[in-house]
Amino acid sequence: MADLEGLRVTCFESRMASEMIGLVERMGGSARSAPAMRELPAPVGPNTRAFAEQLIAGQFDIVVFLTGVGAGALMSLIEPYYPRPTVIEALSKTVSVVRGPKPLAVLRGWHVKPTLQAGEPNTWREVLEVLVKAGPLTGKRIAIQEYGEPNLALVEALEAHGAEVAPVPVYTWALPEDLEPLREAIRALCDGRTEVVAFTSAQQARNVLQVAADMGVENGLREALKGTVIGSIGPTASAALRQLGLGVDFEPDRTRMGHLVRGLARSATTLLRRKRASLEVGIDTSRAGRLELIWPADECGATTDPLHDSAFLRACRREKTEYTPIWLMRQAGRYQRAYREIRSKVSFLEMCKRPDLAAEVTVMAVEQLGVDAAIIFSDILLIVEPMGVGLSYQEGHGPMMARPVRTSQDVDNLPGIEPVESLACVFEAIRMARRALHPAVPLIGFCGAPFTIASYLIEGRSSRDFRQTKTFMYRDPGAWYALMDRLVCDHAKYLNAQIDAGVQAVQLFDSWVGCLNEADYREFVMPHMHALIHAIKPGVPIIHFGTNTATILKAIKQAGGDVIGLDWRVDLAEAWQELGHDVAVQGNFDPVVLFATPARIRKQAQVILDQAAGRPGHIFNLGHGILPDTPVDHVIALVDGVHDLSRR
User: Fold this and answer.
1) Which pTM does this prediction carry?
2) Are strands 618-622 and 584-589 parallel, antiparallel or unpaired?
3) 379 is catalytic
């Protein structure tokens, strides 16, 4: 279970201060409450009265509620002048938009069903997105319930879309009436008596610095925060902290107080060690990201090799481990908000080719999930781009080849490539990720298996029946063998270069090989897989993974590999028995179960662990990659559950 291990945590929350203190203490932290702001009702002014009059007269097209407290406060300001039923009736006839669950709950309490709801992470950007998707905004009159201060960015964005915007202030922010708890918290920070701070709003950060400046200790506070873990509840607070030069060490995937505290409980101890070790060697921790921070010397294995003794690599060697190691295919992906934020700015291909971004999401996934191995962020088709087949990634359609390989002449015309040169970006990403990962967390490299890559080249895209691939294979075996030999050569160079760059294991993804029967696999695929596996540098564990492979598992084992990946369609105990216990296995949780409740996820994890029976050589994984829209907290629940349930 996540544990703050007695770390001293200062919370700046005001309205829900007692709830937050309770959360910190339940997570094993020593909590200090230092409310950094208070909310004051705004006086009824021209804007408020005008809003009520125009709403009742039907002159607004859209009303946006940004906070639950603000929605309630707005009604309280209006009620002395207009009966609540009249206001609610008018609101029911107007398009209403809520930013997240709190204003949603308030409107439901009024028996008003909001027209639109902005989703996570509940910033003004999601409000804008849901409005734009709903239809043209040109000429629309939009009222916005403000909170604390005007949201100029939202107003300007709506006006840029042609809307007329009427801000409606309902409360303002001020410093607490009693400043002594906040002052004492600042003194504790400056004196080194605090390890973690938690901000739940942008205004808290501004007020903390203001009070520190009034005390004459702002510079001392800034220096102290360089050695303190800074937690932020979400994007808006994080943006303010960065603008103030404070940096952010942890931000949860969901903008919820509970997620913030639980996330800090998982990561604060490690973050604190890294931050302070980095500070000692002169790294500016207020600006450094996860790729720049270093690890304390005592964790780098001066006398032992922490990687060699890791649970993951021990399991690859079928040695006993203290618990069953777990990592997850596609553990860096669209289900994570931080990933989506990066992906919204660059194309998928660019993300793969930029070493800083590829390394960032690789390490981010390990830190967020607590898995036992990292896998470098890349794509199995990156190697075909230098072949000149016109690789592109189209939203909703996946990878596409503009010039597929359909004849023996096409095979002959494929240009020779040198992966070390053409894919240098991958190797640099590996080096960057390896430096940033904990010294005991192995890094996995990978490539597509020859059959799967050949299928993409021939089909030109994903396929259901692989008609083009099988036709090519049956009609022209010579051209097929030539293509497979070519891919074996390229992929062997590619994987060995990944090993040289710093990966500790490699996985071969044969995603489509399950479309073959055993006889065809043995004739058209197995010799090439055998050749590839034996061309990989010795001493590095090889994971051989395919999907829908129940009927060809024995042949896959004969092709080679230290670990055989199993998908969710097979019983792990029966498959391992069929393979023989002289090989390790990886799998095989159904990724769809991650949409179930945490209790069900834990129960299903126990089923798979029972099938493995504690036998050395089991690596827990999914039967395929994590699906988009999977709740992050459910993935974390799986990782924690596997660790808890399997501990010997």
Assistant:
1) 0.91
2) parallel
3) yes
